[in-house]
Structures are given as structure tokens and as C-alpha cells.
Amino acid sequence: MINRLQNVTITKETSTPEETKELAISLAKEAKAGDVILLHGDLGVGKTVFSQGFAQGLKIAEPIQSPTFTILQEYDEGTLPFYHFDVYRISDPEEMYEIGFQDYLYGNGVCLIEWASKVEELLPEEVIEIEIEKNLEKGFDYRMITITYPEERNINI
Ligand code: ADP
Ligand code: MG
Distance from the CA of 60 to the center of ligand 1, in angstroms? Predict the structure, then answer.
């Protein structure tokens, strides 16, 4: 890669699921068509909770289910089309072609991808990354949320 994008990293801490949703709502308000958001973190850390808040921020009223078994849930009723992926069960990134992954990535909506590292080789260079981590020393419901995005994007959260 010749021109590596410069990234900005911000860190937020939450101590309830509601606070994580609030953060996701504010990020959703900054979202644009074509955004690809990667969600990293262990099982049960709050990726789906974050996705629910994000959908709320896009004014999607429908309840957000974890797409663990379906890989993709699509919501077209909000301010932007929302493509919610959970690629945990993908064993070969090639499987993503079968569901038309590239069309979603370069489409008119926002892609939010839980377990995105499983399909790393298929992802575009310009992404927004969210890492959610626990720290049990700080309490069971404590989460540290690290958001990384290209400098060109003025994200205000
Ligand atoms: P994942 O999708 O990463 O596997 P989920 O979002 O399904 O995880 O589950 C996260 C769980 O952690 C939920 O039961 C949620 O209530 C709980 N939780 C506790 N504290 C927080 C927090 N600060 N932020 C997000 N979720 C939290
Ligand atoms: Mg999940």
C-alpha cells in the first residue's frame, strides 16, 4: 500500500448496556452511505448491543436480532439501509460471495460486521473499526470501546 490512510483513535468507557447503546446511537448519526464498520471483541462483550443502539440511531424501530445463524439481517426502514452481519460461523471467506457481500460493501447503506476479522481479506481499505473489551477489575459491566476511523472523516461523538 502506497498511501496508508492516517487514522484517528478515540476511547470511551461504558458501565451499562444502555451507555454502549448511547455511544452507538451517536456514531449512527455520523454514518454515511457506504460506511463499513467492523466490530471486534469476544463473545458476550456487547457487539450486538452496540448494533442495536446503532440501528436505533438510524431510526430503525424493528427489533435487532443477532444474525448469528443468518449471517446477514437487512433493514431498509431507517435513515440509511442497514446491513447487519455476524460472520462468526463463516469458515471460509469465499462463503461471503454467495450472499453477495461485495454488493453490500460497495452499496448505498451502512455495513456493520460482527467478527469482521474472519473475513478480513474481503474488506475495503477504508473502514471504521470498533473494539469492545472487558476489564473485570473495573466491574462486570465495564467496557472499553476503542473507535478508529480515517482522519478524513470528521466523526463527532
Ligand atoms: P456479543 O454480540 O459481543 O457476543 P452481546 O451484545 O450479545 O455480545 O451481549 C453482551 C452482553 O453483555 C449483554 O447481555 C449485555 O446486557 C451485557 N453488558 C453488560 N454491560 C455491558 C456494557 N457496558 N455494554 C454492552 N453490553 C453490556
Ligand atoms: Mg453478537
Answer: 20
Ligand nearest to the CA of 23: 1
Q: 67: domain range?
A: 7-153
Query: Residue 2 domain-assigned?
Result: no
CA distances from 113 to 26, 43, 50, 101, 128 (A): 18, 14, 11, 11, 10
| Residue 56, all three cell numbers | 436505533
- Residue 109 maps to a domain: yes
pTM: 0.95
Residue nearest atom 24 in ligand 1 by C-alpha distance: 17
CATH number at residue 140: 3.40.50.300
Count of domains forming the chain: 1
> In percent, how much of the chain has pLDDT > 70?
97
**What does the pLDDT average to over 106-120?**
96
Question: Mean of the pLDDT values across residues 117-139?
Answer: 96
